[in-house]
Amino acid sequence: MEQKERILVIDDEVGIRSGCQRALTPHGYQVEVAATGQEGLAKLREDGFALVLLDVMMPDVSGIDLLEPILAHDPDVVCIIITGFGTVEMAVQAIKLGAYDFISKPFTADTLSLTVEKGLERRQLQKEARRLQQIEEEARRLSQEKAILEELDRIKSTFMLTVAHELRAPIAAIESYLTVILQGYASLEEQRPMLERAAQRARELLDLVGDLLSLAKLKQLKEDSKKQKVSLEEILDEVVGLHTTEAQQKQITLQVETCPCLPVTANPAHIKQLWTNLISNAIKYTSAGGKITVRLFPDDEGAVVGEVQDSGIGIAEEDLPHLFQEFFRTDQAKAVTPHGTGLGLSIVKQIVELMGGNIRVESELGKGTRFTFYLPADTTS
């Protein structure tokens, strides 16, 4: 006969042990016995059993006390308490602690077989229910992953279409100017301004390609091997020096306020790009006679805080949630400079998040904007 489940009988009475073996073995069960609780626990840990018949009263240990280690070892084990006269209350307590059922002495072979059969059926139903639950969870996980992949594919397609659109405009303009010149439709006097406009559109195209490359590198970067301790103040001084002339030409006051700060762990090129994008944007969108204030200071939570505040065109409230999206430009920004990549702030956000920081923006249309970023300080000596 094919062996069914393995059963362990733990009882200090030899008659109960042998009786259980005689009653259950003909039904195909493989039955092993143990005379003490410790012996039974050792056998259980050495080998697996589907069901344990457990005497509630034994000399070395109570069957109730064995329930916890048995179920801790294998939560699927079905425990059936064997109880004598006057210990039914203990059996009820055992059920509350995780036992499946109890059977009172003396019991018949039929009663034992029926109780064991029901216990094993319950075990099988529990295993099947858990298997179905795992299938459902796996199906749910796969569905979520499928949705994520579909969304990523949609984002990728949208990104590629947007890139193609942004590249098409300057390329078409350059091709148009060159075609007019090559086909002889422009006089010598007309050719120079056309070539200048073509060169300008080529520079815009290079800017776009450069920003796209920067953004792609930041998206792919997981561990930057060029990270080191960096002083934000030193790089800020360098960037401000590069933009002072541009601000002066627009008669913009560029004010810098710094307090001593701990360094950050970063790629110096990324910090330079972070300051450059924020300060150049502020100059670009601030009218002549305006003011830009750049601040650097530590906060009370161990972060280094950078701020770039301007008195420029500002940002409409409905545009704020989209500000860091790739290629997004407000109508006000387009009015000031029709041509732009719309990638600068996306790059800024990627840099800040790559360093474990965050950035926020506050703005009022027509009154100016303030960008504030928080980077974790490097506190190592």
What does this structure look like?
The protein has 381 residues and is of the alpha/beta class. It has helices at 14-24, 37-46, 63-73, 88-96, 109-182, 188-220, 232-249, 268-284, 331-336, 344-354, and strands at residues 6-10, 30-34, 51-55, 78-83, 101-104, 228-230, 253-258, 264-266, 291-298, 303-310, 358-364, 368-376. A five-stranded parallel beta sheet has the order 2-1-3-4-5, with helices on both faces. It has a five-stranded mixed beta sheet with strand order 7-9-10-12-11, with helices on one face. The chain has a two-stranded antiparallel sheet with strand order 6-8. A hairpin with a 3-residue loop joins strand 11 and strand 12. Helix 2 (37-46) runs parallel beside helix 3, helix 6 (188-220) runs parallel beside helix 10 and helix 7 (232-249) packs parallel to helix 8 (268-284). The radius of gyration is 38 Å and the shape is elongated. It starts with 5 loop residues before the first strand and ends in a 5-residue tail after the last strand. The model has no long low-confidence stretch (mean pLDDT 87).
Task: Give the SSE layout.
Blueprint: E1 6-10, H1 14-24, E2 30-34, H2 37-46, E3 51-55, H3 63-73, E4 78-83, H4 88-96, E5 101-104, H5 109-182, H6 188-220, E6 228-230, H7 232-249, E7 253-258, E8 264-266, H8 268-284, E9 291-298, E10 303-310, H9 331-336, H10 344-354, E11 358-364, E12 368-376
Parallel strand pairs: 1-2, 1-3, 3-4, 4-5, 7-9
Antiparallel strand pairs: 6-8, 9-10, 10-12, 11-12
